Structures are given as structure tokens and as C-alpha cells.
Amino acid sequence: MIKTLFFPFSHISKDQLRIVTAFFPNLGLLPLVPDFTSDPVLAPLAEQDILQPIFALPRELDLVEKQVHSYLDWAQLHRGNERNFKSLLKEQPYFMEDTGLSSIQSQIRKGTQKNEGPLDQKTIGHKKAGQDPLLLLKFAQLLDAQNEGIDDELSALKQSNASLFSELKGEQSEENTEKLAPGSCGSSGSVPLDPGSIMTKERVESWFRYAGQKDVFKLPGATPLLITTSPAVLDYMKSKSDVINALDIDSIKVHENGCENKCKWQHDFYQFLQETIASEISSGIARPEVDDRCLLSGQIKLCLFPGDCMEEFFNISDQSLAVCLVQLKS
User: Which end of the chain is more exposed for a tag (fewer CB within 10 A), N or C?
Assistant: First the structure.
């Protein structure tokens, strides 16, 4: 039974993994892949039940993959016109015509021709696109993965430069030469981009439609607690719905990776959240405290959304939802 569910992302970065695994022992997610066989990071986490993926079926991905490749092929052939292409994707994230890929390419060409205005929503079948969220989610997945790759390269470059300057100055030190392993508590010093701030509305609504298709809210047991690392996502949901702000903790100590106390604390923390959700307030409920030498700290916001709002805005029938925002402090 999946107790927690990561959203609204299909790609989970190493930084997001570090955050959510500091608070929760396992996490459900909806990756737009058929398996993790070729993923050296996520495959072992799934084997250990730290990640509990609900994989996409090959038949679900087949058409979407073809459409994505069609866009990428077109972009490669028209590299001189990237600005118009990016603008088009930003303004019109959906291209779903019954006539297939040739029509999609035709839509893009028309939308980027000189002296022509933006594509008409009726022309590109926006309403039909809204019934199939996979295309938007797939593009978002690719974007997030590419941005993570860029961040990794910049971080490696920064680390390399720091080591080089230290050697030139003759001040080689552990602080400058220490390598930050994946999952460690270190930071590159830069403020990471919130991927949920890019096309927030489309991400959230598409994710809920896809989650509905996968019946994740009809699984045995209680409705999963939705977990996000994106302040922009939570802000968007709050703007669309009445909400009960059940919990807002600006600073809470959490255990570092490898700490023998981490497992029990996570269990107690989840129970604390469950009791808070049930009572709709945090007063009178003792939250678990870290009382060892771990120095890692984070932030938590827990919001409760009533069922009528979920049905109106996110097409989740007769179900209230709890959404938890978790972050780690630098």
C-alpha cells in the first residue's frame, strides 16, 4: 500500500530525493517510464522499497514518445528558430490533433512563421489535449532531467575551480577538496530552481488527470498523502481552493543519512502527520524531536483540501486531500 505519493513530477532529481528521504522512509511516484532497469540511481531504491513506482504501460507511452520525438526532430531541423519554438511550447504546451504527427508538425510551422500570430487554441485541439495529460508531463519530465544535468555540470565545474584555485594558492584543504556524494547533506551554494514554478498550472492539472487514470486515489487503504518539494505547486493549489493550514514549521531538525535514529524518527514523524490530518490541527500533538548530534534541519507545511474543491478544480471525486511541502535548509 502506497502511503505517500510524490507530485506533480514524473522526474525526481537527486536533490528532491535527498529532501523527501530525509522525512519519509518510502515514497510512491508516477514515472513516465515502463521500468527502472536502465536507471542506476532509482533502480536500487525501488528494490529496497524506498521508491514505490506506479509505472506507465508501454501502450500508454507509445504515442507520446512518437510525438515528443517528432517535436525534437523538428527543432533539430530548425535550430535557427529556437526562440519561436520555445515561445510556442511555453504558450501552447499541447499539440494533439486527430490527424497525427504530420499535422502536429504543420501546427508548429504555422505558429512560428514570420508575421503570423500565435496558434489558435481551437486549431491545435486544446480541449482534446486536456483529456490526455501525458504529453505535457513527458515534456516536463525531459525539461526537469535536462535542468538537473545542467545543474550537475555547473556544480562540478564550480568544485573543480575551487580545487584548482586552492592548489594554485597552496592551500589544499578538506573543505575545498571534499566531494559531495549523492544524498549527502552538502550544498553547491546556489539556490536551486523550483521546477514547479515552470508551467505550474499545466503540471498540476495534468498530473491529477494522469493520477486519476492510474487509479492512485482508489488504491486499498487511506488516500495517499501527497508530498511535494515545490512551494510554487502548493501556492497554486491554495489559490484554487479553500484550504486548512494544518501545519507550518519553519525549522525542524531531521536525521542525516546513516544515522541509526533516522528510521524510528521517520516512523514517528509520519504518525505525527497522520494524527494532524485526522484532527486538522497540530495543537496538543507532540511532534518527534531529534535529540542527537545530527545538524540537518528542514521546513514543513501541511495543507488539507476539502473534497468539493478537489472535484471542482482537479476532478478528484468526493475525496479530501492532504498535501505536505517539505524542504531542507542549506
Answer: N
Cα distances from 220 to residues 211, 214, 223, 275, 315, in angstroms, run: 15, 13, 8, 20, 20
Distances (CA, A) of 26 to 17, 20, 68, 186, 291: 10, 9, 31, 22, 23
Widest CA span in the chain: 66
- Grid look-up 535514529 returns 261
Q: Quick one: which H or E segment has residue 20?
A: helix 14-23
Q: Provide the β-strand partners of residue 326.
A: 300
Q: Full-prediction pTM beyond 0.85? A: no
Q: How many contiguous H segments (helices) and E segments (strands) does the chain have? A: 12, 7
d(CA 33, CA 56): 6
3-state DSSP assignment of residue 303? strand
What are the tens digits of pLDDT across the range 28-51? 999 999 999 999 999 999 999 999
pLDDT tens digits for range 129-140: 345 688 889 989
